[in-house]
Design goal:
With 155 residues, the chain is of the alpha/beta class. It folds into 2 domains: 24-76, no CATH class; 89-152, Chitinase A, domain 3, CATH 3.10.50.30. It is 28% helix and 22% strand. The protein contains 3 helices and 7 strands, in the order βααββββαββ. It has a 5-stranded mixed sheet. Strands 1-2 form a two-stranded parallel sheet. Strand 6 (135-136) and strand 7 (145-152) form a beta hairpin. The chain is elongated and about 55 Å long. This is GreA/GreB family elongation factor. Keywords: Elongation factor, Protein biosynthesis. Residues 83-142 form the Transcription elongation factor GreA/GreB C-terminal domain. GO terms for molecular function: translation elongation factor activity.
Length: 155
């Protein structure tokens, strides 16, 4: 039967709702990342205390399950000293003739538009352990990436 002849309340044609996937591997976080996870968890727990529709409650519960697990599994990464690219550092480098700066953060803290990139991202994995002056090969780049600066990140 065509969807045009169904009642709007028929749920069989709605998109299925899936659990939020938990990233594989350890849940390493910066102190900032840990606070973001804790705050998000508290926000959702408080929201579950309020009145809401059954559908909204299901959505909040789905999110809460994810954030509860992320809070429970969070491991603070060792403090970075800035001598090499690691979780919790800010790195400046030249790639394909362009200078870029990014902060290496945990998965849930990642925000590429703000130059905060997860330590699990392919580019960051290639840079991990590099020191100032190192040249790092990456994917199909014609030239190696040149590390200009590494500092312990304050963000």
């Amino acid at each position: 039967m065509s969807v045009a002849f169904r009642r709007e309340s028929d749920e069989e044609h709605l998109e299925p709702k899936f659990e939020l996937p938990i990233p594989p591997g350890p849940n390493l976080v910066t102190p900032r990342g840990f606070e973001l996870i804790r705050a998000r968890n508290e926000e959702l727990e408080a929201k579950l205390e309020s009145q809401m529709s059954e559908e909204e409650r299901k959505s909040v519960l789905r999110d809460a399950k994810y954030w509860r697990q992320r809070l429970a599994s969070a491991e603070l990464a060792p403090p970075a000293d800035g001598s090499e690219v690691a979780l919790g550092t800010r790195v400046t480098f030249v790639r394909n003739g362009q200078t870029q700066t990014l902060d290496v953060v945990g998965h849930d803290e990642s925000e590429p538009s703000a130059n905060r990139v997860a330590f699990t991202a392919p580019l960051v994995r290639a840079l991990m352990g590099a020191e100032i002056g190192d040249e790092v090969e990456f994917a199909s780049d014609d030239e190696p990436i040149l590390i200009l600066a590494v500092t312990a990140s304050s963000v």
